[in-house]
TrEMBL record:
SUPFAM superfamilies: RmlC-like cupins (SSF51182). One of its GO terms (molecular function) is metal ion binding. Binds 1 Fe cation per subunit. InterPro entries: Pirin, Pirin_N_dom, RmlC-like_jellyroll, RmlC_Cupin_sf. This is RmlC-like cupin. Belongs to the pirin family. The keyword Transmembrane helix does not apply. Fe cation binds at residues 58, 60, 102, 104.
Amino acid sequence: MKFAPRHSTERGHADHGWLKTFHTFSFAGYQDPHHMQYGCLRVINEDRVEPTRGFGTHAHREFEIFSYIVSGELEHRDSMGNVEVMKRGDLQMTSAGKGIRHSEHTHGPKPVHFLQIWSMPSTRGLSPQYFTRHFSDEEKKDGWAHVVAPVDVEGVVEKREAPGPAPVHSPIDLYATLLSQGTKVSHNFARQKGYAHVVQTSGYNTKEASGAQVRVSGAEGGALDLKEGDGVYIMAAPGEEVVVENVGDRVAEVLLFDME
């Protein structure tokens, strides 16, 4: 197993007043040929949107788009007729397929903090679909909650609302944890690519990463420490184990991708 760190200070970022955002991969005005995508994973945007503001109606096609809500509330509307307000713990998946139009705005008096994640589908020309799931803090506490999984995996339910992970038409699994101080979790990779991201829960910070701190181990060359906003590319053989340990002074919220 090998690690390649993606420090928060190296991500693309922009402060538009109404929107404060970080881009792990090239997006909008931020373009870096060394960080275009990783496997089927194309976008990880960590967004904070001010009250009454948001993204007006716009089109998507041939992407699997999921929103992971960290805090606040996000209102979603789309051309399939879906209208929904999402809150902390919610995971919303839009399979854009042949094409959809949607909008996303902050709902209520507080800003919304969420991660917008895009993956590339294995099959093009699918009919658009919409799914929502909810995962409580208790489900994530000191263990991996399986929040997204390929649609053809046993136990994945292809219904708008259902228990278990949201279905995705990409070879990608997403796990989330809320890791207490001194606690560790492990994961055995099913595929050859992984990516871990520490959510920036302490606030928008464009300077050196701070806040929660985790140690990721299992690779050649030793362990790697990450703080809020940091991430790491992981190259692994199927079956290899990665360990994530909270070595900081507060709860760490961590996302882990396992993908082709």
